[in-house]
Amino acid sequence: xxxxxxxxxxxxxxxxxxxxxxxxxxxxxxxxxxxxxxxxxxxxxxxxxxxxxxxxxxxxxxxxxxxxxxxxxxxxxxxxxxxxxxxxxxxxxxxxxxxxxxxxxxxxxxxxxxxxxxxxxxxxxxxxxxxxxxxxxxxxxxxxxxxxxxxxxxx
Length: 155
Prior knowledge:
Layout: H1 2-6, E1 13-14, E2 17-18, H2 20-33, H3 49-62, E3 67-71, H4 79-93, E4 97-101, H5 105-111, E5 115-119, E6 122-127, H6 129-133, H7 141-149
Parallel strand pairs: 3-4
Antiparallel strand pairs: 1-2, 5-6
């Protein structure tokens, strides 16, 4: 189920037994906070790929990790789901370090306070999204990215 998946690494117990009611309630509370209409008792296998991704990100929220690394967290999500995931990331970033690997530049604007552009294993630039944007006369992040990462003849 979703709630079992969320607590996979830290199952709350009541004596010798799992506290399913507590897990379900914590999952309901999280989903309500995120405006997600998910029943914690739903089987994960019955979810579409985008909701499986949201459950994985929700699991990160439920854990007490100080650093979370995400690879393409909104890839394949519809606009509303992207919004929900980005809000979740912003909430986590209040007290956690979030590292995101993405090629989706709108993600940088939506959730990043700092960004590093890496191409062919080298750091090409870093800074806030505004600092990176300032490298282009038109203030376009995509133009900065292309300028830093594309081969000269391919431009």
